[in-house]
Amino acid sequence: MSELDRLRRTFFDECEELLASLQDSVTALAAPDAGGQHAAAVAAAFRAAHSIKGGAGAFGSGILVEVAHLTETVLDAIRSGRMAPSDALVGTLLRAGDALADCVSADRDGVPPPENPPVLAELRRLLGTPADSTPPAAPANTLPDFPVIRADTAPVPPAPPAAPPPRVWTIDFAPNAKALAAGHQPLLVLRALKALGPLQTVCDSSHIPPLDALELTESYLRWTLSLTTDIAPEVVAEPFAFVAPLCPPQITANDGSRIGFDPLGVGSLLTTDSPAPVQEVDPTPLPEPVSPETDPPLDPVRPWAGPQQAASSIRVDVERIDRLVNMVGELVITQAMLAQQAQGLAEDRFPMLFQGLEDLASHTRELQESVMAIRAQPVKSAFARLPRLVRETAQALGKRARLILIGEETEVDKSVVEGLSDPLMHLIRNAIDHGIEPPEERRAAGKPEDGTITVLAEHRSGRIVIQVSDDGAGINLAAIKRKAIEQGLLPRGADPSDDELYELMFHPGFSTVELISNISGRGVGMDVVRANVNALGGRILVRSYKGRGTAFALTLPLTLAVMDGMLLQAGDETYVLPIANILESLQPAADAIHHLVGRGPVLSVRGQYTPMVDLARMFGHRSDPCDPTRALVVLCEAEDGGKVALVVDSLIGQQQVVIKSLERNYGHCEGISAATILGDGRVALILDVAGLRLLAARRHRREGDDPHG
Amino acid sequence: MADTLFTPFFNDGIPTTDDDTPSGPMQQYVSFTVGGSEFAVDILAIREFKRWTETTPLPNTPPYVRGVINLRGVVVPIYDLRARFGQGPTQPTATHVIMMVAVSERTVGLLVDAVDDVLTVPQSALSAVPETDSTASHPFLQAVLTIDERMIAVLGLERLFSGEVVPPLPLGPSPVSRQSP
Amino acid sequence: MPTAHTLAVLVVDDHASIRGLTRHGLSQIGVSDVVEAANGTEALAALGQKRFDLVIADWTMDGMDGLDLLARLRANPIIGRTPFILLTARNDADSVRTAIAAGVNNYIVKPFDVPTLRSKIEAVLGPLA
């Protein structure tokens, strides 16, 4: 047996498996599409038909190719939603599978295959294809060797009768790093062109940098080529077919003709094996052949004809929007970079430039807001499960509660809405469990038997505020204090403020018997709520009034992609402080600064003592202490409501920054929440005020009032 | 051979692989120099080479964490291998190289003195790390390659950054515990 | 100018018959150093073991398909430049477009004959001696 015969046998063995897979998948289509398994079944069936077609061309008979091709086309139509898998359709596909099996066994047994199985007509009818128009089973490549063909010759000679006079083509070819990295070899392109006629090459090597600046992966050479040939433009374009999408050449002729490449280097003369009727309903039709009358030779821009019908909304894949958000993020960075570059220039000498930059800044901002608005959703979806939750929780605990929702239409970024659901449910459960009293207790206290839980959402100074409040008993601060002392979280005889006691509620592992119940299960879990809210870049505040109720306020950014930051200098480094954290900046008088043993320096502002943190020293950028009365102090409030006075060298200015994750490739860095990229391309770190406060507190506790603190 | 199938940079050092050696399947490594010693990593881990560029330091991290850089819009940490091997920080110049490597799901940069060669070696050239005192201090060595009497240490990248294997290092004047990257 | 008998070619296809056919075609033009891989994962492992002058890969495969493999290959600065020819039965314009955009160096439509295989390889590697 020859090697080809062996391979042929292997192919028929593979066909058995493929046919089995085709049959299984098509059978699965007959069942209702419960878990979306139809899509997987169609994909598997398509792969099987496709593989049979691929091998059949080489090993099998034409009829096998034709049935496989039509089957594949029908499956493709189902896959793209142009056909629905009805019972009749499934029947046809199963019969097509049988016909394929017949062809395979005939081929294997060396008998002539069934010449015109009835299912062929059935498939053609489905696809609306005339009987003789099926194109496949081409013996060799059906793809033209050159997929790049759009020649817009100035006077288009319709099929020139004689050989056209030779043209002199001028080709500007600048292979870039991308093309080299993809394994393309400029030399081969030049050689291929040389085969078409006399070729003059001029190499421009002026872009080669000095040796120490030479990047090995860069491409520094460009060529201007002059090719004299009477060969058709498509053939001249051919050597560039695969490299054109990466670095499109400029090709013009001495008679004004030029060769254009569409953005992917593919033109209109491609053959296609998709039957015409299917194409017509294809939502993304192939580009029509370009004719010189209707289109300019390069970069044809077709006017947007407007929507076919007056549609008020469209469905868009979230991934596409995210890509848009990312691009706008990059644009914000580029805009900042341009603004920074222009700073050294005299504004009166370049008034247009500065006007342009100003416009760019405002347009960028507007674009960014518009794009973020696409992602914005009403918080309603996070509220949707709350009424039922209140009903069921109250019932389980023998309490009575009603829920009031305010501001459900308030919009916020999709990811924020998604992240809100869990903390909200947690807070509501807690409110009923620990806030709202049993009916008899409420009656005794002179309150209505029905407790009220209010969830309110509103925009407030560029953030969204969600407030969950109840009219229950209020938080039992004495119980928290007692338990904290028992658990060693507070020293005996301590006199914590109310704020400090609220803070303890969020301490991981903190629990009080009074606060544990079946409903909350794992205890209060307030640390989890805070972690969730922090992860969204938000903070949570508590206010409670004995006998009157408790309110939790969650303030969250409207988006997670960008934020307003204050750029500041600490030592030689630039950091970003979220504007939302800044209360005020000041230059304190010497008598406003006090040193407390074990707690480090504190700043007195209007009677309140706030710990001071010398940023450059704490981050190790400088070892000498900084005189705060000469530097600048920024008073900040952390997400947890705790305050800290940051000593910095100077404030650089306010800027919108794009938030980049530090965790993705590194991990958590204490005192830092994320990173951003500045106008000069360098990374700057975004400060985490709550983290800084903890870091400073720990250091002072450990080191006493050591001057290294 | 085709004219330039490879980055010319590496063309010289590539041993031919035309014949299957009897010593088992071959494996490709990229070798590089750190503080006078030669190391190697699996070729498939490498994503990119980059000239040394100034980093943004991450506060309160061990000396071998040089900070982060912007790699086409993504924030990537740079580790100083010389410092990681306990030989003090590198004084980087324009000729120092950052090797971008993929470790688990992350991309990180390794600061090295120079990238040397692509090595195609049979499995038999690989041997276990010898049991010496230094084994404990260099748990990130995966194996040793012996080529023409040269000994080249193969790095296990996962181990280089896994907090479990690498003992916490002293952090300088103000020790602060931090999570391992 | 590359010589056929020194070329190392990696052939990736999930069907043994197509791999065999490609190997057979390659042997007709003088290429004998052919390694076969049945899927993208096997192909990546092979790429880590030996230097190849050319990868010829099927597009439609279970798991990592041909273009996924190409993306993984191109991500490597050393072996990423290895020329890559996609072997597929898809010859509609959209498919060709997609493949070119993904960075294939050439494209062979199944079924193919030996002269086509040769001309495609020469287009990528230069004339074979």
Automatic annotation (TrEMBL), chain A:
Q: What does it catalyze?
A: ATP + protein L-histidine = ADP + protein N-phospho-L-histidine
Q: Where is the Histidine kinase domain?
A: 289-560
Biased composition, class Pro residues, residue ranges: 284-296
Kindly give the PROSITE patterns that the UniProt entry links to this protein: CHEW, HIS_KIN, HPT
List keywords of the entry alphabetically. ATP-binding, Chemotaxis, Kinase, Nucleotide-binding, Phosphoprotein, Transferase, Two-component regulatory system
State the SUPFAM superfamilies in the record.
ATPase domain of HSP90 chaperone/DNA topoisomerase II/histidine kinase, CheW-like, Histidine-containing phosphotransfer domain, HPT domain, Homodimeric domain of signal transducing histidine kinase
Tagged with keyword Transferase:
yes
Q: Where is this region: Disordered?
A: 272-296
Report domain CheW-like positions. Answer: 562-698
Q: Which domain of life is it from?
A: Bacteria
Provide the transmembrane region boundaries: none
EC number from the UniProt entry: 2.7.13.3
- Where Phosphohistidine occurs, the residues are H50
- Ranges for the HPt domain? 1-107
Output the Gene Ontology cellular-component terms.
cytoplasm
What general EC class does the enzyme of this chain belong to? transferase
Its annotated function is as follows: Involved in the transmission of sensory signals from the chemoreceptors to the flagellar motors. CheA is autophosphorylated; it can transfer its phosphate group to either CheB or CheY.
Report what the protein is called: Chemotaxis protein CheA
According to its UniProt entry, this protein's organism is: Insolitispirillum peregrinum
From TrEMBL, chain B:
The record, for InterPro entries, names:
CheW, CheW-like_dom_sf, CheW-lke_dom
Q: Which positions fall inside the CheW-like domain?
A: 26-166
Note the SMART domains from the entry. CheW
Please list the GO biological process terms of this entry.
Answer: chemotaxis; signal transduction
Q: Name one Pfam family in it.
A: CheW
Gene3D superfamilies of this UniProt entry? CheA-289, Domain 4, SH3 Domains
- One Gene Ontology CC term in the entry: cytosol
Q: What is this protein called?
A: Purine-binding chemotaxis protein CheW
Its source organism is Insolitispirillum peregrinum
Automatic annotation (TrEMBL), chain C:
Top-rank taxon of the source lineage equals Bacteria
Tell me one GO biological process term. phosphorelay signal transduction system
Residues bearing PTM 4-aspartylphosphate: D58
**TM region positions:** none
Residue ranges that the Swiss-Prot or TrEMBL entry lists as coiled coil: none
Q: Pfam families from the xrefs? A: Response_reg
Q: Which residues form the Response regulatory domain?
A: 8-125
Keyword terms: Phosphoprotein
Q: Which InterPro entries did the record assign? A: Bact_response_regulator, CheY-like_superfamily, Sig_transdc_resp-reg_receiver
The record ties this protein, via PROSITE patterns, to:
RESPONSE_REGULATORY
The record's annotation in PANTHER family points to: CHEMOTAXIS TWO-COMPONENT RESPONSE REGULATOR, STRESS RESPONSE REGULATOR PROTEIN 1
Protein known as: Two-component system, chemotaxis family, response regulator CheY
